[in-house]
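Repro:
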Amino acid sequence: MAALASNANFTKRRKRRPIVLVGGDKGGTGKSFGARAVAGWLAMQGYQVAAFDADGRNGHLDRYYGESLCVSRITLRETLGWTSMYKAWELADDNCVIIVDLPGNIGTDVTREATRLKLISDALNRDLINVWVAAEEEDSVWLLEEALQVADAHRTIFWMNGRFGADPSKFELWNGSKIRSHFISDGGTESFLPVLPIYARTAIARARAPFHNLSSANLGFTDRIDFDLWWTAVEESLKPLSDLLGGRP
């Protein structure tokens, strides 16, 4: 629980590590898997992590990282849940990256909470970052505008989930949209989340192994090589996030 041992001094203006909101709003886009990949990447890079799992039905952060990272289960369907989360943020170490796995269909709540969310992150001197996990569907495109009310385009990554298209060119609705044009012109970043091969994915899921420590998954040579190739691609896809985190741990 060291990540929540507070050394916060709110009179200082030294920049603290950001708050990463992993969302997508529409159910089934792969938000929780994306949050799981981001959390594993942060841990692998050596960042301190305080994770907040708000996905009540499919909480990947708690399931896979509950024993290796500091993970808190929260509900954001009511104001009190947001308040509890903010108070936990106050206790987080300055050098700790905060990651929140947002549940599906939370966009209206996030919009309602946007002003308070931004004021609190500003008081904590932590930037807000959106990692928007997207399917190749219209909802993934137009719902992005709600997320941009919390973090501007230049602090948002549109992360195309490879489950819905073999490469970024297959995301035709996004590629042809005016929202994309405005997003890119405003400094937004696109990236592509590749698909983890099914046998490696199944073995890791059965063991509930965190991506940064697969020892309990007992992967064979083929599955390990497949994972390593996938992980290299994930690391490449998260380079834009590395640039937003304010330097190496």
